[in-house]
Amino acid sequence: MVQIIDSYHVPVLLQESIDGLNIQPDGIYVDVTFGGGGHSREILRRLGPKGRLFSFDQDADAEQNIVDDDRLTFVRSNFRYLKNWMRYYGVEQIDGLLADLGVSSHHFDDAERGFSFRFDAPLDMRMNKQAATNAADVVGNYSEEQLADVFYLYGELKQARRLAAKIVKARQKSPIRTTGQLLSALGVDTEKESGPTTNDNAQLSILNAQLKKDLARLFQALRIEVNHEMDALSEMLCGARDLLRTGGRLSVITYHSLEDRMVKNMMRAGNIEGKVKQDFFGRTDAPFRTMGNKAITPTDDEQARNPRSRSAKLRIAEKA
């Protein structure tokens, strides 16, 4: 038995998301975001001897957390290829699929991966270390207009054009290859912003909080672009829709509005655009029934124990 490394990633909404799958002991389930293995381990705990679990992760680091269990098949691949891999394994229908779409704490805490502005490290952000394009390539090669589009669409930053212009101006003087160089290009004085604040300097504290929020959105935008996350999510959700048998469950945890909107559209209308189809008599023709009227969010206790969970939303749907 390979020990799952708890420090790799603390699973969010663990019980709620697995309860949402309504696991059948002999069923076939898919965890498309294996990570630290927390959700997969709980699925295995509820499966019977004949149950099967397929767990996906494109990051080689996740392989250290694989559980030695004959019921588990680990697939080192992007979840966008879900349908292809299920066909490869001879699986025509599944009973449930779980997706925890957030970046694991392991990625944020590993300075060399370049996911966080907390460290001065190479601008990487690749989930798959073998991928050709990293964040430095995006920052260094995209036009000002392309960068602005990335920041606006994926980071929802109103100042996207101004930020893109700063980057293009800075890279004309010297390449931007690290997170520190990116912050410098944006005009962020890391020593000043990370310095202590006092009760007499409340305004600076507010500005720091807003700055961190904006930087988080900018880094999110770069990460989404580098890993083609929206395209991958779209393909995976369409694959899940086609693979789930009647009564099968889709349980998805989102962390930002872009992916949450996509998941809501799929569960409500059966497509990414959210276009509700009607039959000849005007009856809604949707492949899913949503479970509950609104998203499930972490309790105050979970948010206190795991700050990463604060923006999490769990949505569950059943194949009609």
Q: Which radius of gyration do the C-alpha atoms yield?
A: 21 Å
Specify the overall morphology: globular
Number of helices: 13
Kindly name the structural category: alpha/beta
Largest sheet entry: 7 strands, mixed
Strand content: 5-15%
What is the mean pLDDT?
90
- Count of strand segments: 7
Distance between the termini: 38 Å
Structural summary, described in words:
Helices cover 40% and strands 13% of the residues. It has helices spanning 14-19, 38-46, 82-88, 105-109, 135-141, 144-155, 160-171, 179-185, 190-193, 202-227, 229-243, 257-269, 300-305, and strands at 28-31, 52-56, 72-75, 94-100, 244-254, 288-290, 313-319. A 7-stranded mixed beta sheet has the order 3-2-1-4-5-7-6, sandwiched between helices. α6 crosses α7, α6 (144-155) packs across α10 and α11 (229-243) runs parallel beside α12 (257-269). The longest helix is centred in the last third of the chain and has 26 residues, at 202-227.
